[in-house]
């Protein structure tokens, strides 16, 4: 078989693994939003991802089975398999060894990181495809022997560069490196004429044509969910350059880890994902080309190395997220797939060089050939074995069930003020794409502060009254004629509807506190008029069994959205107890009412702590504090000895699992004091039992 046939076979093998592991529902992160944008032909978050949106819409329409999420997940799996084919082709053309190609692609495609994000409705598998495509075209350009061949490859490459920019902008680093390298080569060959430059520029711009989708979608304004207003040039450029996030930054207003920390973590992460063997072979490739700089393909090795180093340093500089936080680490690591793809190309070349040198020194080509294939097979098999169970997402419906529970718990015709990626994207997908709870209206808190949100989307939010054009704590007209409104005004004009916040409320606008209170509603909260009297027993009965959640606590990876969803649902079980306790602590109520609230909170904590063997560690601390408050109520509600034993037990359990708590010394002091009280109580009980 030729290189193309081998590449096709490799892609088919990867596709078989990817498709069987693909999830049937939308997962966390941007997945729900990207699917919703494609489903309704809206615009996704900056920079818009027009190519992915159009491909996803095509998949939703053409694939004959499964939910919208499953169809887009399948598309991404196939794109990931195509990326594997292109990377294989690149390694084989670079090294001349199919075994090296299998080794390189197997280690990359079946790494936990690549596998996980290649089967999810995200833009990363398409980006991997473009990385593989640009490197394959670079190899073809290097091998071209005539001006005509080079011209043809350059035009195709320029178009692909433009097309790649319609997806993930991080690829611009690779595009710039390749453009500079190709230009220098054409200059040496005296082929870098004005006519050629104009033709290549035209091809690049032709590749960027999918960006026309953004203003067209914004002009038609048919989607119930979309981001931005691209009908003006300023609006288009704002979206394209991600100005609302911070151009070339991952997030807005975030203080991230240092460049050095990110680079060091990238190297450590690379070792964990691809193995030390891959890193060593990549170094071997670079060293060999440094020792013999005129070796065939050495220019390509230096090109790929410069791409890797430039991208790694640039990304580490601009990745303004704190990677010490597991969830942010999970966000950052996804962008290392782009550098890992280059590493495995270098490693594949180094792999082939090692066996080439072995053949020269040993002379037994048949034995060396067999060892090469055996080593490649063993390493790739080990990679698949290590990661299959972790990456098999075919039964993962955690985020799906999270969204379903939140939506099903709501009363009819409610308004939900969304905040955050998890509730926002998952609820939007279920509501708009799956048609769950069409009576409910979803309003995004963050988006309401943007000037384009209400002018574009208010007409798609029937039944909700907006007393202005934009949410701002300070009400009134702005110089440009925009009318702002605060949350208090919004709640006032929508008082005929139940309004909930999921999850949390924007801290910048405290005006609602004047006439409203937040009452717990599972993971969400209900905004209730302060004039409505609070009945603790009634609210406990109403909110105690809102959700049907059966997932075990602590079974998900710390950097996953599944862990965040599971944590929210578990903490929802104690939210009412926490609210009652806090009301007793801070509310201006009578002594009798405080005692009632403390006792009710204690009973709720006791029930959930004793019901579940494994649960959030803060439950121990909260329960111990609730026991302490009940202990000092007069008249006594519970047996003092039992309460003291519970306080000591659960404070100890808390410290065992949360040794880094800054209040550790205070808790230890409290345990010491409770032990003293326990001795006094037991002494008193013993005295009462003695006969007079």
Automatic annotation (TrEMBL):
The keyword Transmembrane helix applies. Residues 1-21 form the signal peptide. This is Transmembrane protein 260. One of its GO terms (cellular component) is endoplasmic reticulum membrane. InterPro entries: GT117_domain-containing, TMEM260-like. It comes from Laticauda laticaudata (Blue-ringed sea krait). It holds the Pfam family TMEM260-like. GO terms for biological process: protein maturation.
């Amino acid at each position: 078989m030729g290189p193309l046939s081998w590449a096709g076979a490799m892609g088919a093998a990867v596709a078989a693994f990817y498709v069987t592991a693909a999830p049937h529902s939308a997962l966390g992160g941007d997945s729900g939003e990207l699917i919703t944008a494609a489903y309704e032909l809206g615009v996704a978050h900056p920079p818009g991802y027009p190519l992915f949106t159009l491909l996803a819409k095509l998949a939703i329409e053409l694939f004959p089975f499964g939910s919208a999420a499953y169809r887009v997940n399948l598309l991404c799996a196939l794109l990931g398999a195509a990326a594997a084919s292109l990377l294989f082709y690149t390694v084989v053309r670079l090294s001349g060894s199919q075994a090296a190609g299998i080794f390189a692609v197997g280690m990359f495609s079946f790494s936990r990181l690549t596998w996980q994000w290649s089967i999810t409705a995200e833009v990363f598998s398409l980006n991997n495809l473009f990385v593989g495509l640009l490197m394959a075209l670079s190899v073809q350009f290097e091998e071209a022997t005539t001006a005509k061949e080079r011209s043809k490859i350059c035009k195709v490459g320029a178009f692909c560069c433009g097309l790649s920019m319609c997806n993930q902008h991080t690829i611009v680093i690779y595009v710039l490196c390749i453009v500079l390298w190709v230009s220098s080569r054409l200059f040496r060959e005296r082929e870098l004429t004005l006519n050629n430059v104009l033709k290549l520029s035209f091809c690049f711009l032709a590749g960027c044509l999918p960006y026309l989708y953004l203003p067209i979608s914004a002009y038609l304004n048919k989607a119930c969910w979309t981001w931005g207003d691209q009908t003006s040039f300023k609006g288009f450029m704002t979206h394209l350059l991600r100005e609302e996030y911070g151009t070339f930054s991952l997030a807005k207003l975030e203080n991230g880890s240092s460049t050095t920390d990110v680079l060091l973590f990238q190297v450590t992460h690379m070792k964990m994902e691809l193995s030390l063997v891959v890193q060593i072979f990549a170094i071997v490739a670079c060293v060999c080309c440094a020792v013999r700089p005129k070796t065939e393909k050495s220019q390509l090795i230096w090109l790929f190395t410069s791409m890797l180093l430039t991208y790694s340093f640039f990304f580490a500089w601009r990745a303004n997220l704190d990677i010490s936080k597991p969830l942010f680490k999970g966000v950052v690591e996804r962008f290392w797939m782009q550098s890992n793809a280059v590493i495995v190309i270098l490693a594949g070349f180094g792999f082939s060089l090692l066996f080439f040198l072995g053949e020269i020194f040993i002379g037994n080509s048949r034995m060396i050939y067999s060892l090469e294939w055996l080593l490649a097979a063993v390493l790739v098999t080990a990679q698949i074995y290590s990661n299959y169970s972790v990456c098999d997402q075919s039964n993962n419906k955690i985020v799906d069930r999270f969204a379903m529970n939140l939506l099903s718990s709501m009363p009819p015709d409610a308004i939900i003020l969304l905040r955050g990626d998890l509730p926002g994207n998952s609820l939007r997908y279920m509501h708009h794409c799956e048609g769950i709870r069409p009576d409910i209206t979803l309003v995004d808190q963050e988006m309401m502060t943007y000037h384009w949100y209400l002018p574009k989307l208010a007409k798609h939010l029937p039944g909700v009254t907006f007393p202005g054009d934009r949410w701002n704590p300070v009400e009134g007209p702005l110089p440009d004629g925009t009318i702002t409104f605060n949350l208090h005004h919004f709640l006032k004009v929508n008082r005929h509807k139940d309004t909930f916040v999921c999850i949390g409320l924007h801290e910048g606008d405290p005006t609602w506190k004047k006439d409203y209170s937040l009452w717990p509603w599972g993971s969400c909260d209900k905004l209730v008029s302060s004039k409505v009297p609070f009945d603790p027993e009634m609210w406990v009965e109403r909110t105690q069994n809102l959700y049907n959640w059966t997932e075990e606590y602590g079974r998900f990876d710390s950097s996953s959205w599944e862990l965040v969803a599971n944590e929210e649902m578990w903490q929802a079980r104690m939210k009412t107890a926490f609210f009652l306790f806090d009301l007793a602590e801070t509310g201006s109520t009578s002594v009798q009412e405080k005692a009632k609230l403390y006792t009710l909170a204690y009973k709720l904590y006791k029930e959930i702590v004793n019901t579940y063997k494994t649960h959030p560690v803060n439950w121990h601390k909260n329960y111990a504090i609730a026991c302490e408050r009940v202990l000092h109520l007069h008249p006594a509600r519970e047996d003092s000895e039992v309460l003291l034993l519970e306080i000591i037990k659960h404070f100890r359990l808390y410290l065992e699992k949360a040794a880094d708590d800054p209040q550790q010394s205070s808790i230890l002091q409290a345990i010491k004091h409770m032990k003293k009280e326990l001795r006094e109580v037991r002494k008193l009980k013993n005295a009462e039992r003695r006969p007079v």
